[in-house]
Amino acid sequence: MISPRTEHLINLALEEDAGLGDVTSRAIFPARHRSRGYIASGQELSVCGVEIAARVFARVDPALKVTARAADGDRLRPGDRVLEVTGPTAALLTAERTALNFLQRLSGIATLTRRFADAVAGTGVRIVDTRKTTPAWRELEKYAVRCGGGFNHRSSLGEHVLIKDNHIAAAGSLTRAVQKCRAEAPHGAKIEVEAETLTEVKEAVRAGAEVILLDNMTLAQIRAAVAAIGGHALVEVSGGVRLDTVRSFALPGVDVISIGALTHSAPAADLSLTVLPARKAR
After folding, report:
1. Catalytic residue check, 215
2. Is 165 one of the catalytic residues?
């Protein structure tokens, strides 16, 4: 089910790209000219955004008929088809770029997430995203992370408490920040504290944090921090984690590895639309 926010994004994207019409396609193809085409993968990927792409085609012209050949989360090989579309040629070509933009962006995130999730398979550690998302695209990008086998961290500032370095600096101490949050935040809100040193880890444990984020720590520091936490809080690792190193960070005692790159640095997936002549006007 496409949410109202996604519907709005589709509207904005089409207004941006085709608000003045498609002068090229309309000049070449009469209204009765019809074609068929398909979107296929050019690489191994985890697909995401199939329903959104179909909605783009339908929004441009309800006469465009889309048949899905893959579902969000499916792993595709080069040449595998994502969807097939048939209908007025001009409308099909008008919708092409916008449909591909959604598919390529979201499939890129899902594909990168899948690589990270596969890299830690069997360790019990979850790969999660962050709030480092494209403005207004957070709902979609976090959905793409789930399609790739990852999990979502908080989606907004209101979901749970996360005390970071600037909160601590402005509050005067980590303990003071936790105390203020404990007194003022909603009773059901978890309190997570970002710690950069073992001293801060121990202070967070004493203050009663439910989750402790180990920020930019070495493997040796993480091991020491996990020992200091002693199971009294969930352990999240973040900062400096790459695809080639992520499994080394999935140490015993680590529950979650959060990776901003899942959304802010995922390359667009290789997907393209091939159009074939179907029927010309007589």
Report:
1. yes
2. no
pLDDT digits (tens, 9 = 90+) for 263-281: 999 999 999 999 986 555 4
- Which listed CATH number (3.90.1170.20, 3.30.540.10, 2.70.70.10, 1.20.58.340) goes with 4-111+267-279? 3.90.1170.20
Structure tokens at 147: 């399609």
Residue 123, pLDDT score? 98
Active site residue 16: no
164 is catalytic: yes
Residues 23-80 pLDDT 10s:
999 999 999 999 999 999 999 999 999 999 999 999 999 999 999 999 999 999 999 9
User: Is the pLDDT confidence value at 282 over 60?
Assistant: no
Pick the CATH number of 117-264 from 3.40.1390.20, 1.10.3720.10, 3.20.20.70, 3.40.390.10: 3.20.20.70
Beta-bridged to residue 13, according to DSSP, are none
pLDDT band at 186 (very low <50, low <70, confident <90, very high): confident
pLDDT at 7 over 80: yes
Count how many residues are written for the chain: 282
Helix (H) or strand (E) holding 38: strand 34-41
If we measure between CA atoms, which residue out of 197, 191, 190 comes closest to residue 215?
197
Identity of the amino acid at 136: A
CA 146 to each of CA 52, 106, 126, 151, 217: distance values in angstroms, whole numbers, following the listed order: 16, 11, 11, 6, 26
Query: Which residue among the candidates 22, 129, 141, 194 is catalytic per the annotation?
Result: 194
Per-residue CA distances from 175 to 53, 115, 160, 163, 194 (Å): 48, 38, 17, 10, 12
Identified catalytic residue from 97, 131, 154, 202:
97
* Active-site hit among 69, 146, 154, 164: 164
